[in-house]
Amino acid sequence: MLRQLFSCKSLSERILRTGLVTGRKKTCPDDSPFLEVRADGHLVRAISYGLGPRFGPTVIFLHEGLGSIAQWKHFPDALVRAAGCNALTYERLGHGGSDRLIGPRKADFMQREAEFVLPQILEAFGLDKVILFGHSDGGSIALLFAARYPERTLGVVTEAAHVFVEEVSLNGVRAAVKRFETTDLEKRLRLYHGENTKSMFHGWANIWLSPEFRNWSIPPETLGTIKAPVLALQGADDNYGTPEQLERIKTGIGDHAKTVLIPKCAHEPHVQARKTVMDAAVNFLQDIKYTVEEKAKVEASPEF
After folding, report:
1. Could you tell me the pTM of the whole model?
2. Can you give the residue ranges of every domain in the chain?
């Protein structure tokens, strides 16, 4: 699959109108269509699969700060199949096969992704109301989207989401920088990000370690505007955040947020505690799907 993901013509060689989707069927393991989307002036890569909106809601998978489509492996497909939903996974600017990041990231990069980029991607796929599943930075983006567009958000699942910057977060980034410089981490990331690897990594590390990002947060008043149900997951041994992240999510959102601290689990719950995450997420998604279907039945019923 990795060879297929990097064998296509460079995205930057094509000129597309904003929101236009193009692509061809690839011989991926799940026979999913591989697509290119123009959003916020850049080309990004996406994969969508499922039976379509008529058969269930769509889950948008938002990867971590060093993530890509391929790094999710088969988790999105397994989850949505079990829950009876559809999936859309895409790579943010600078990641995987999307356009390369030019210059440093800005401190509001997650807000911009949530407020401008993601809505354009949803428009390109003809999606209105969606469920968001975000890991780490992707979890923060999911929360920001749900706060900005409550009418478009059916539900949110986060893994290791950040709502404020902790010293443990910065220590985790510093440790990653050291591994990038002294181990084969760069080589392993290159399997997924190709020529984007160095700019992707340094774009992530440099903004997290910058003075202007130290006071970044998703404040309680922003979390309080989220109306959709939220399932927030975090490993008890997460080296990028403490359980206070979950506490602030719960306090800010209120009773419609459920938090789960997973023992003996670090920063990748869907890898390190797959069964726990699958069980919790499938139940959560199926509850949302049932609510959506029941609402549709009521709306379709004739009035007397």
Report:
1. 0.91
2. 2-296
Tokens of 252: 């800010």
In this predicted model, what pLDDT tens digit does every residue of 91-143 receive, in sequence order? 999 999 999 999 999 999 999 999 999 999 999 999 999 999 999 999 999 99
Which residues on adjacent β-strands are paired with residue 33? 25
Amino acid at 9: K
Cβ neighbours of 218 (radius 10 Å):
22
**Tokens 């356009």 belong to which residue?**
99
- The neighbour count for residue 117, using CB atoms within 10 Å, is 22
- Cα(179)–Cα(223) distance, integer angstroms: 34
Q: Which residue has the tokens 């719960």?
A: 250
- Cβ atoms of residues 40 and 120 within 8 Å: yes
- Which positions ≥6 away from 272 have C-beta within 8 Å? 235, 264, 265, 266
Report the Cα 50 to chain-centroid distance in Å.
18
- Range 2-296 classified under CATH 3.90.226.10: no
Residue 175 corresponds to which tokens in the numbers above? 């440790």
Can you give the C-alpha Rg of the chain in angstroms? Answer: 19
